[in-house]
Amino acid sequence: MAIRNDDLINAAREARKNAYSRYSNYNVGAAIVDDQGRLHVGCNVENAAYNLGNCAEAAAIAAMVQEGGKRIVRIAVAGGYSEIGPCTPCGGCRQRINEFADKNTVIIVIDDSKEWREYSVAELLPESFHLD
Prior knowledge:
This protein has four helices and five strands. By secondary structure, it is α+β, with helices and mostly antiparallel strands. It is globular, with a radius of gyration of 14 Å. The model has no long low-confidence stretch (mean pLDDT 95).
């Protein structure tokens, strides 16, 4: 059975509940559907040495790669303080997503109007960096 967008969003919301955000109190969960149709989730894990923390998107991508996934078909990101609010991937995560995306990859996030919106990688990371 294919994973619907609502299921993907709910998986990101659930992953968010496990975030370790002791310093920022900003909890983020991410859920990916890979090229095999499998679901992978991650949450942010902060550290007192801030640059050693892990973003939710990076954690979900690592889980995908660990399980043999090669491409992100869709990714949902849910973040916020106490309530879920506008949360698009940070610049570093946009580049991470781009590494495993193609022109058809869909990024689902909640926007400033509190509505879920779909973006392409090109919309979130125009003129992105590629090694090939």
